[in-house]
Amino acid sequence: MNKMKVGIYIFDGVEVLDFAGPFEVFSRATLKGQNLFEVFTIGKTNTQINTYNNLKLIPEKSFSDALALDVLIVPGGSGIQKHELQDSNTLDWIKAQSKKVPVIASVCTGALLLGACGLLNNKKATTHHEHLEELKSICPSVELVKNTPFVDQGNVLSSAGIATGIDLSLHLVARLFGEAVAVATAEKIAYKKS
After folding, report:
1. How far is CA 138 from CA 51, 54, 76, 131, 157, in A?
2. 0.85 cut: is pTM over it?
3. Number of structural domains, the chain?
4. Residues pairing with 107 in the sheet
5. Within a domain: residue 111?
């Protein structure tokens, strides 16, 4: 069985649980003892990044690699407002990925990047409750959904904040491979699936 490729974008100031939660879910999803996903981090380059709380990481892949992704996860964190929203390389790369990646999902303020790229135009979306109005200012045509862990709009999904990236990832596992696989994955990581 060919594994689906899940790429998780990481950058200076990324929130750790925003990317680590989805990484854990997709890494643990199996069927008949076989891993269903190949999961890796992607940075602008392969140079070290520092997360929101100063965990140091080296991305496995970079923007210049041929990725052939099935799912792209765009997490949030303080780096979104500090530099990512103004970085044309990041925005251009996400726009280019959106033309070829079947599913793009944001965690927390990663939705601000999707909004800035036009991926949430005339769609329902959510983000961290403290940043809902900021998302609306970046993407005026978005229909904000409050008090929900995630919103599924088919090829674009968004989740409300930090830990809800786990809910979103389990939802995607269920969507792609069935509810039983998602439930088994949640049990492996001792997470109560919502």
Report:
1. 24, 28, 15, 11, 17
2. yes
3. 1
4. 159
5. yes
